[in-house]
Amino acid sequence: MNGRCRKDLQTFGRISLRGNCLQTQWLSETYEEGDHNLQLLTEIVGLLPKENTLTGIYSHDYVMHVFHRGKLSPLPRTVEAMFSFAQVEKGVFLTVVEKKRIANFIANKLSEILFEKVGGVVEARIAPETLKDFHFKNPEDTKITFFDNVDIPNVNKLSIYGPDLTNTQLFDDYAKHGDLWYVVARSKKTGYVVGITRDASVTIFNLAEKAKFVEYVNKEIYPLILVTSK
Question: Is 0.70 topped by the overall pTM?
């Protein structure tokens, strides 16, 4: 569509984990297309410092097009995502509670605000061996495993589905030929059914409360990342 945006006001500033530096941040843009003139707003609101964490809401307007009476018309929509910064040992971790594509978009936007460039916030990594240790802590409750970097010609990925994966020779064979990429298991501590990838993408299939999601990531996922980074 032939629309254009004009930035009217920019007041983004740095976000600090220290409470005395916190304030609402926002960016206003005007989207113009034909007879339509739409005001788009990007906000960081609801900032809440607590111990070594800072949570907030990233709210972002964008334009989609809908078919109406024989023509496409622009329509504003809003995405709101909870994010959380956490100081863990010597590092600062960011969790964005959204689908991966949107979470990556927001992570880049936060990087631009904090570091004035993309790349200040980078994806975390969990080593295959660390992911395997997580799997072995929940052996009876692991439901799905995926392997990549497979050394078998013309085979890119391997997967196993089932209720008793650790007691199969197939799991050991796959582990010899590839790296564990994705695990779905039920956590013994919480009862959550959790999917984890090596790039630290986390899905909790039986939990809808975002604050509980962030709490689980802080307690269970960040330690896996720290083990890998050491």
Answer: yes
